[in-house]
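This part of the workshop introduces the protein records we will be handling. An example says more than a description, so a record of this kind follows.
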Amino acid sequence: MSLWIVNNALSKVVVNGNAIATYYIREQNDPRGRNVTSGDALYVYFADSKISHIEVDGGTQGQYTPEKLVQRETADEHR
């Protein structure tokens, strides 16, 4: 993993080799779901201290899970 810092702020993260990222999607602070993405390389770009976009190269796979299923999985884990 490599990090790029510009003007004392994180600007980019690059993960090479079997890169996997799990991130939670929000719309105006309301949870919308979870996305798990993997590939040979993962590029995460930041703007204003937030993720602006993510790029995945090579052997890309992804899975989106709607929020209602994320909540159900979380409830099952705590039983």
